[in-house]
Amino acid sequence: MIRMPAQFYRLKNEWKSVVCWMLVPILLTVFVMKTFGALQEEAKVPIALIVEDSSPLARQLAHEIEKNDMLSVRYMELDDALYKLKQHELDSAFVIREDYSESVAANRRNGLIEAYSSNRSFAYPAISEMVMSLAQQDISRSKAAMVIQQLFHNYGMDDEWDYEEIIERSEEKQRNESLLKTSFSYGKQAGQNDEKPMDFLNSRAVWAFFAIISTFFLFDWMLKESRPSMQVRWLYSSTTFKRHALWMLGLYSLLTLVSDGLTLLVFHFILQEPVTLSLLLPMLAFRLTLNLFAFLLAIVYRQVFVYYMTGIAAALLLTVTGGAVIPLDAFSRKWQWVEIISPVRSLMMTTIPVVWLMLLLLMLAVWLVKGGKRIA
Amino acid sequence: MLEVEGVQKRYKRKSVLKDVSLQMKEGEIVGLVGENGAGKSTLLQILATAMEPTAGELRLDGKRYKDDFKQLRQIIGYVPQDISVWEEYTVEENLRFFERLSWKRRSPKECRKLCLDMQLTQWKEPVHSLSGGMKRKLNLAISLLHDPILLLLDEPTVGIDLKSKTEIGSYLLNLAKKEGKMILYTSHDMDEIINICDRVYSIGDDPFYPTLLKERGIEVKQLL
After folding, report:
1. How many whole angstroms separate alpha carbon A120 and alpha carbon A144?
2. Residue B100's closest chain A neighbor by CA?
3. Do B97 and A6 touch (CB under 8 A)?
4. Which of A235, A242, B10, B46 is deepest in the core (most CB within 10 A)?
């Protein structure tokens, strides 16, 4: 008769808590991100957009305004918008007038967009600036197209490109070459790459925070089993404590990797996060780092409560230095070692925390060779 | 047979065991008495291979401790003073977990019989809800899973009621007399020592325990 190994038997007896601690980070991440997302939606400035012109240029402008994360754009008729503005249900209302595209083509800058505000329109100046700058962009593009057409005409190349083609080509150039972005350098310092700054609350970082805590709760078996009173039992067992502990570490690592796979699915399907293959290796490295960290700390600690508290403190520290709660882009540019300190940052930047992994693997090797000699 | 010759143990400058020699045969229960700090637990830990002596020679079943301590652990059972069990598990789960780590395979039926033999009947109860006596019995049962020939018990009945003490005592007597196991037993309870031990060793300089036992007609051999 084949008997189940002790490690599996232990896992079988504790499956409820193991499953619970594996699911907690996923569930809490979904909860936080959905709640924060809803709050963010509530915090958006409501504006009305009345599109009287049905031209592609007008639709394009409306789309650009709608793309702004800080605005909640509602399309409606002017009468409704004005009524809601009076009721202070809207911050402001903007009308893209019927002759918008014609005015742009004719380089007429006045009366392109009508704007309405009330005495409580606190965001009106900023929003009207933004809308006007977008319209200005259209006008400038249109003017440039006309100059180019004029040049074609002067050189007898009238049939080369028409107006729409020039506009289309200009937009394509803007998209591909980020013409409105640039990098600056100061003194002898090299200019920074045009990195996309991290979001205020990143779902990967939120998950990492809860994953650190749950890993400490998941690995408390190591602390319980390495108590001196339990160590005596291992002297009279067919396996050594270290071999047993390594088995358990491998088993738990395998299970946590499965839960990480589930996490990626949740990221993709529920949180609509982009999940690419390039994320797999950093995620695996982060998980191994985390498991080794919790495992090795459990060897050192004697009291479960202190161990749990350390887990929570580590989660806070690593997440903050990882730039998850307060984005620390500038901070980490100045002190590169922040990235080394926080494996959370490595996860967010999809890199591998090599220093952490090496250090922890070295400590594991030291423990295997020299550690745990409390009992001969 | 257990043979101990000239065993010494020193912790830096402090000498705990000076020159201990003793012998035990199969089927014998030997008591070890002495005041706290006399070195009873230290001697038991050395015999259990949990601690190395500073000097001296130990043999069990003809095998030298120095050469074969890993093999000897397969025939030694050690019941520590602390209760070393999983509090959150039931009696059954504890036994079945440690059985899986044991050299000897035991069926669930055999595990249960081991418990029943020492009147540990709360098979499905979590350990944290058991009385001190029941926990001590479980502590003993786990140490017996690999069927050792030498059983070392460090105050196995401390802090438990008379009924449990008697049950454990009867069980140990049975183990020695019917199964021929060697049992070395430390306790501060002289009634217990008198009732179950064939011979008694005293350790340390204090004459209190030897005098007490001699008054009750028990011969005590002094260990240095």
Report:
1. 39
2. A6
3. yes
4. B46
Asked if B82's CB is within 8 angstroms of A233's CB, the reply is: no
Over residues B100-105, mean pLDDT: 92
Secondary structure letter of residue A9 according to DSSP: H
* CATH number of the domain residue B173 falls in: 3.40.50.300
CB contacts < 8 A (A, B): 59
**A30 and A266 Cβ atoms separated by less than 8 Å:** yes
Percent of all residues in chain A with a pLDDT value above 90, rounded to a whole number = 40
A63 and A139 inside one domain: yes
Choose between B67 and A196: higher pLDDT. Answer: B67
B residues 22-51 lying closer than 8 A (beta carbon) to A = 48-51
Determine the structural domain holding residue A356 and report its residue range.
6-37+200-369
How many domains is chain A built from?
2
Residue A234, pLDDT above cutoff 80: yes
For residue A163, is pLDDT > 70? yes
Which of A160, A175, A190 represents a domain boundary (last residue)? A175
Indicate the pTM of the whole model.
0.75
Q: Which residues of A249-258 are buried (b: 16+ CB within 10 A; e: fewer)?
A: bebbbebbee
Residues A324 and A267 in one domain: yes
Q: How far apart are CA A234 and CA A271, in angstroms?
A: 46
Q: Is the ipTM of this complex over 0.90?
A: no
